[in-house]
Structures are given as C-alpha cells and as structure tokens.
Amino acid sequence: MASKKPIFVLNGPNLNLLGTREPEQYGHQTLSDIEQDCRARAEAHGYGLEFRQSNHEGELVDWLHDANETASAVVLNAGALTHTSLALGDAVRAIEVPVVEVHISNVHARETVRHHSHISAPAAGIIVGFGTMGYGLAIDAIARWTET
Ligand code: DQA
Q1: pLDDT tier, 148 (very low <50, low <70, confident <90, very high otherwise)
Q2: Contact 25, 122 (CB under 8 A)
Q3: DSSP 8-state secondary structure symbol assigned to residue 85
Q4: If you measure from the C-alpha of residue 34 to the centroid of ligand 1, how many angstroms do you get, rounded to a whole number?
Q5: Whose CA is nearest to atom 4 of ligand 1?
Q6: Which is the closest atom of ligand 1 to the Cα of 128?
Q7: 69 CA from centroid of ligand 1 (Å)
Q8: How big is the CA angle at 44 (ends 41 and 49), to the nearest 5 degrees?
Q9: For the whole model, what pTM was predicted?
Q10: Is 135 a catalytic residue?
Q11: Residue 112, number of CB atoms within 10 A of its CB
C-alpha cells in the first residue's frame, strides 16, 4: 500500500513567540506544544507531520511550493502576512494541494486591517477563533476529507 504523504503545518511571523506573545489573544501554549498536539492528531489519522515556522515571506512561499510535491494537505497560519501578502495568496492559488487557513484568534473581532485575508479565497477551508485547538481541528478536517 502506498504510504500517505505527510500533512504540512506552516506558521508565519512571530508565531515562534507563542506562549509569551500577547497571551490574552493567543493563549499560553507554545509552538512546540502545538506541534506535539498536531503530531499526535496526524499520527492518529495515519499521517506523518512536517511542522515549520518562518519569519520570512519567501521561505513560506517556497514551502508551499514544496508542499505541492510532497504533502497531502497544508495547514497554514501565515500570521500578519495573511493580511498583507499577495505573494502568499498567489502561492496558495498556484498549488493543487488543499490549504486550510488557521487563525488562533478571531481576526474578525479585531482591528479592521485583520479582516481581510489574501489566503481565504484560494483556501480549501478556514478555521478562525478556536484558539490553538484550531490546528487540530484542521488536521481532523483534512483526515475526514481524504477518507471520503
Ligand atoms: C494570527 C492573526 C494575525 O492577525 C496575527 O498577525 C498573527 C496571528 C492568529 O493566529 O490569530 O500573527 O494569524
């Protein structure tokens, strides 16, 4: 039986600081806690996990291109680049592998500048405002899609 390609979880700028960064917005879990949770969920569904974070837009674009070749699906929290990066939106549009956009906070309840996302239109789905639990929900959704 061919083994499934891993799920990629890609994180953008400042998410390396989770745990200490604005805990009233993002809670107390660190990125490493989130990675452990994602790995357990992915493995429970029979997937491997590739979990990455970058503060650099171009690196995230490169990883989305890689994902098109080597991933089953992508969970993407692009941080503030969500609201500014046409290049990331174009990268999501350019690849065939499904991308689930995740935000820890409810961006629609925050400043107006956070209401627009370059990623939402080309994304396969969006999970917003469920705290760090959103990453696991995205992995469960990907597993459900690919089972059916
Ligand atoms: C975020 C929301 C963005 O507006 C913000 O810039 C982030 C985190 C979230 O997960 O809630 O860095 O993507």
Answers
A1: low
A2: no
A3: -
A4: 15
A5: 80
A6: 11
A7: 27
A8: 55
A9: 0.96
A10: no
A11: 7
Which positions ≥6 away from 141 have C-beta within 8 Å? 100, 125, 127
Q: Tell me, what amino acid is at 32?
A: S
Q: Other C-beta atoms within 10 Å of 18: how many?
A: 23
26 is annotated as an active-site residue: yes
Is the separation of the CB atoms in 77 and 64 below 8 Å?
Answer: no
Confirm or reject: Cβ of 107 under 6 Å from ligand 1.
yes
What's the pLDDT band for 24 if we cut at 50, 70, 90? very high
Partners of 49 in the β-ladder: 7
Give CA–CA dist 3/93, Å, rounded.
Answer: 26
Residue 34 three-state SS = helix
Please check the confidence at residue 2 and state whether its pLDDT lies above 60.
Answer: no
Q: What is the pLDDT of residues 93-136, one digit of tens each?
A: 999 999 999 999 999 999 999 999 999 999 999 999 999 999 99
User: In the β-sheet with 73-77, what is the strand arrangement from edge to edge?
Assistant: 49-53, 7-11, 73-77, 99-103, 125-128
Are 127 and 102 a contacting pair, CB within 8 Å?
A: yes
Which residue's CA is the nearest one to ligand 1's atom 7? Answer: 79
- Name the residue with the closest Cα to ligand 1, atom 2: 79
Amino acid at 90: D
